[in-house]
Design goal:
The chain has helices at residues 51-63, 129-135, 141-151; strands at residues 4-14, 17-25, 42-44, 72-78, 84-91, 103-107, 115-119, 121-127. It has 152 residues and is an alpha+beta fold. The model has no long low-confidence stretch (mean pLDDT 96).
Length: 152
Amino acid sequence: MPQVSAGILLYRRKGGELQVFLVHPGGPFWAGKDVAAWSIPKGLIGPDENTLDAARREFFEETGFRLDGEAHELGVFRQPSGKRIHVWIQKGNCNPSRLVSNRFKMIWPPKSGKTKTFPEVDRGGWFKRQEAMAKVAKGQRPIIEALFKKFG
């Protein structure tokens, strides 16, 4: 059975242009990757958790920012892995330089037996359409397109 996640695509208008907030995954695998590496803040839905609550929890865990206000469901998007992401959109603002992410542990370097801790997300940023499409993981491009189609 495929995994099911939920996330929030935060958006704003700046200088009349629509921008989206994306995050870059932390850890050594992603350290040198930029193009097609970014993501919307998202994660697995917990048992007995509705999709919006899961999306808000994940946004907070990955960024340290609490979102208040109204969110709207954008849709469910199937990823190349088969995972489905329930995506909510919300208008808002945050300062990427204040991002604080939760952390995870892994053995690094591989087979070393040493455990290191890394942030789940190492940075965030605001992007206009063209840059967002280049930065976001390929499977999430339909999410970005759906937002820009909706709000132009």
